[in-house]
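Please, structure for the following, as tokens.
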Amino acid sequence: MVTDTTTTTGDATRVREGVDRATQTAHDTIDRMAAKAAPAIEQLQSAASGAAQALRDKAAALGEMEEAWVESARSCVRQHPLASVLVAVAVGVLISRMGSDRA
């Protein structure tokens, strides 16, 4: 009986050591993967930040362009009020006729 207890204790110790080694290996692997992933994540964040800034810049430029077009249209209407009204009426008639043809 003494031999069986010694064998069982030895087996349990070997199993525990195996589990400890596997656990340590898993921790080391996760640490290595995290270390390799960190630069890639930082690079993605940097790229996303750059893209967001580019979109903000483009939106600002488009806003300025819109303001310039609106001001140009206002100026044209001020310079040629009668022609502007006639064009607006003509466009309204065309839209009305296109809508009534479909119905």
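The radius of gyration is 38 Å. The helical segments are 2-79, 81-102.
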